Amino acid sequence: MHRMYDVLFKNARVLDGTGAPWFLADVAVKDGFIVKVGAASADGKLTVDASGKYLAPGFIDAHSHSDQALVANPTADSKVMQGVTLEVIGQCGSSAAPRNLSDDSSQPGLDDEVSEKWTDMASYMELLESNGVSLNVAPLVGHGTVRRRVMGVEQRPPTEDELSRMKALVREAMEQGAFGMSTGLIYIPGTYAATDEIVELAKVVAECGGVYFTHMRNEGPRLLEALDEAINVGFEAGLPVQISHFKAMGQANWGKVNEAIAKVEEARANGLDITADQYPYIASSTGLSSTVGASIWAGGPEKAAALLSDPSERQKIIANLSARDNWGRLVIASLENDSDQRFIGKSVAEVAEALDISPAEAGLGLLERNRGVVQIVNFAISEEDVQTVMSTPWVMAGSDGSALNAKTAKGQPHPRSYGTFVRILGVYARELGLLRLEEAVRKMTSLPAMRLRLQDRGILREGMRADLVLFDADEVKDRATFTSPHQYPAGIDFVVVNGVPVVEGGAHNGKRPGMVLRHESS
């Protein structure tokens, strides 16, 4: 008598995640694992006719900002609905932990009820597990979060004592299961850290067998120097490096990705394990404050208000900003102030026109009224560069977005939270033919699994964890747009997380079988 499988996919075109050509097989799942790839000898409690569809390992989002989102929205809808079964969170220097509950200015937008529930990485991970979560989670510890905890937003090198306290916090997070450390070197307080501070902390990560993920110090005119710094950290500290959202920002810098790719290739040839991630869009998204006088907002909204109320300081700031020529490409995505809601979806230049003031004054005014928190979308990347980077074999997919729910999410965030993975499959593989389907899937599965050193996910074969996605390669399409982002994609039929279907027939069933993965410190 044959035992019954939990889930059985019949006649699937299997994309195993390695980049090898698809092959026809049944795939059976039992107790959270793939137990058969071939001709299945039993029935499934759930049997899916996968004829003509592709079955792949679940997609891994190598760069996600869902740290807070997964607490508020554990069903992770916008990610799961595009086939994502694992997110790497704690990016760009900002992680959920470690936190000091008495001063939680580092976590805006959290209500008190939620914010009382964790302090360190271990208690954050336990909170996610007790809530349940619909996908798997691999956390990083953020350098900015650690620095803020020890030094606040001081613009200076740490004392010896402060550095040892930062090292202790990084070590604690690593020992509690973080997969590595991230930096956000354009953001406060990361931007105040010199390279040697990063190297010292990265050495702790190296001792624990982790990876260094970095939002580099510059992605525009000084892209290559910033990349040199990241490579230097990898060699000095002796650990793998992941370059976040690999790109060149600003028209004057378009094409620089070719030199950047050559630099990475050279570092790899010299023995550095360095890779990168990318989102498939020509716009980035960040806080307006990071592009408009970040230092003004460093000390919080009260200090900024005092500074800006001084007429001569204000004039200096406006004079510094008035030389900028990209106001028309900075589009407002979300903000809190009621009177400013009408500006969502408009560029700063359009806001200036509506208010009959200069763009510099309009940008500053938006930040003042919204206490420094204005999310923007910045159209500053060339499509040719996007394709050059995507054609590079060591670049994986990372949304740089969050796990949102289309019914409850606010504002007009970047569509990448809903569309990254399906956009690569639909636009770049199918429509443009830039990538073979097998190669597109490799960039979303075995490549990021390799980066995290996960031995049991990212490849579809017997004995692996059953994270799976079944999709229609002809129908798969991202529906989220810059003007109407809160839309789930088409063509993703089934998503299985740890052996449990979470998306069935294109709809999320609300189940939460995800695991919070813990990196084993070496």
Total strand segments:
21
Mean residue pLDDT: 94
C-alpha Rg (nearest Å): 23 Å
| Uncertain stretches | 104-112
Instruction: Give the biggest sheet.
Output: 9 strands, mixed
Helix fraction by DSSP (H/I, runs of at least 4): 25-40%
Total helical segments: 18
**Class by helix and strand content?**
alpha/beta
End-to-end separation:
44 Å
**What is the percentage of strand-forming residues?**
15-25%
**Global morphology:** globular
Description:
Helix 5 (143-151) crosses helix 6 and helix 13 packs across helix 14. This protein has helices spanning 69-72, 77-80, 112-115, 121-131, 143-151, 160-175, 195-207, 223-237, 257-269, 288-291, 301-308, 311-321, 348-355, 359-369, 383-390, 416-431, 437-444, 446-451, and strands spanning 5-14, 23-30, 33-38, 44-49, 54-57, 59-61, 84-89, 136-139, 141-142, 180-184, 211-215, 241-243, 274-278, 283-287, 330-334, 375-379, 395-397, 468-471, 492-497, 500-504, 507-508. The model is unreliable at 104-112 (pLDDT under 50). The protein is globular and about 80 Å long. Strands 1, 2, 3, 4, 5, 18, 19, 20 and 21 form a 9-stranded mixed sheet that branches. A 6-stranded parallel sheet has the order 9-10-11-12-13-17. The protein has a 3-stranded parallel sheet with strand order 6-7-8, with no helix packed on it. The chain is of the alpha/beta class. It has 18 helices and 21 strands. It is 32% helix and 20% strand. The longest helix has 16 residues, at 160-175. Strand 20 and strand 21 (507-508) form a beta hairpin.
